[in-house]
Amino acid sequence: MDYSHIERAKAIEDLNHNCNEYLDLRERDKGKGTAYGYQCQFCGEFRGGEVSKKKVQQVPSRYDSELLDVYFNKIKQINTALYPTSHIPKVVYNPIDHSSEIENLINKYCEENSLERSNVFRIFLSRQREKYIENEFNSNWQSEQQLHAWFMENLSEHFDIYSEVKGSGFVNRQKRNLRIDFVIKAKPKLIQHGFTDQYIGVEAKYLSPKEGKGFAGKSSSGVFQALSYWYSGARWWLPEKESEIELASVLMFSNLSFQDESDAMFNTLDDHYRKVWRSYLSIANHANVGELLVRTYKGALSYWSMSYNGSKYYSMYASGDYHKGTPNVINKHRIGNAKA
After folding, report:
1. What is the pLDDT of residues 27-45, one digit of tens each?
2. Distance between CA atoms of residues 179 and 227, nearest Å
């Protein structure tokens, strides 16, 4: 491919462009099939929605899968040349201890307002959190249906995805019918790079602190649901399989899987929601429940990883590189303090 228009760029300004002036119809993969869309031939980003195949008389050329990475890498190269880390002065930070001044201020405030000192910060932080969530936090998502659609659109390149999969598990030795949002299996390229060839479950949840049971209620319910799918001895039925399958792990996928969304929701002074979420996932980790984390750049998926209480099982980067982390974070078999 000819990337000379990118390679000869000397400054970020040389890469500025209007995508609408460089759009060409291209064919790209979607799930087990293909879809048509307009790709910018300058930077590689797709613009607009899909184009109906019925309206296209001739199959368009395949999309350029490397152009976007070449464009991003050039931006990184220019920025590194302009701002090399070796030229950044080191700042020595000597924090001043104001603890005694703060202590006196708190004592004075409590005396003047007849307040118990132990309640002052708790009340303040609780009110600050409520005010922030109500007036400043706005989610990029509105429903689980949106998350489902995004998951299918963006992860189908790496996994075979089965949606609304039926199964059965046991509660008090009684068999119960189940349904999980997704079951995924890595495509051959991933397996060749060390990813398991087992099936993994995915439960999608929209976790909003503004409505319904609030954040704690929704998140605890969602994590327990994912946990129960694995610990109930569940078996699942897929269309092309003659026998039932088991899952190596179950992943939580939610609006908090997106870094910008979690940063926004957790941006309260007491860090309350972050602590709640991490505590739930810390417990669920022992039952093979992890979290799918993703990052996007200009609307395109640039990174995903499977995280189990901070330990990464596998990661994918925008450059196309795969990185295998800790293999034993899935397929754990634990009961009480025993490990099988």
Report:
1. 988 767 788 888 989 988 8
2. 13
